[in-house]
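Look at one record.

>
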Amino acid sequence: MEKKHEYYDVVIIGGGPAGLTSAIYCGRAKLKTILIEKSLVGGLATYTSEVANYPGFPEGISGTELMNLFHKQAKGFGVKFKLTDVKSVDFEGEDKLVETFRIIYHAKAVIISTGGKPRLTEAVNEQNFLYDKGISFCATCDAEFYTDKTVMIVGSGDSAIEEGIFLTKFAKKVIISARKDEGTMRANKAAQDEAVKNPKIQFVWNTVVESFQGDERLNKVILKNLKNNEFTSVPVDGCFLFIGYEPNTEIFQGKINLTEKGYILTNENMETNIKGVFAVGDVREKVLRQVATAVGDGAIAGVVVEKYISKFGER
């Protein structure tokens, strides 16, 4: 099948908060822009039950609501959206190519905003229970299924603790497996304090998941104590993994400079080592990965891209 060719000023790959912000800026600058997202516009931010620290929303706002507002604003500025998967890219010439199943998109500039995917524990039987069989990555999506049941959370960062607190609105018990020593968490202090005081939350310190057990569905998690190597069988109805994520940069390997962990290297203008190719949001090598920082990245890229493209008319 011969592929169709479409031409744009800007192609944005990935529709999280960084990509959406870039889209808003590019659209407002009257650049012909398309945003390609493979699954859900808004990205992982849509899975957050409450964004409490994004400026302008003192009462908090759900990730889904916030991303819907971003999406609406970008569409209002004329940005096109396409739900499909990017198969390959070619950044060698001034004419950048982004190839999907049916269409090859040509662009003067490409903004990469592909974010990351949830990291797995690599424990025994994990693949057998992913998603609808007991292992989840989204408390907002699945909390209601565990009303009056027992769930486990693996992790001790912001997402783990905050989503654990959210789950207590539904579950009768939330067990948090943390690999660090008692009282040591990576989460923000406010969330830590709230979790420790919550009577529905039980911490199991110095532990990692050895295996997941069950028949059709998960019903047991085997934890290994890192201090004494002893194993504990914990009956659960479900398990939520919040142990970080890995950057979605597989298709960019060999195309642009990446870190050893696969994150994209940029300068403060969001420029990669390839002229006309930019990267924003959680896919970048950076200190902090939150909606607010993603928005900052997207805004910078949008402005820099507009200036970059304006030079085409001067040639």
The chain has two domains: 4-117+245-311, 120-241. The chain has a mean pLDDT of 95. The helical segments are 17-28, 63-76, 139-142, 158-167, 189-197, 291-310. DSSP finds six helices and 17 strands in the chain.
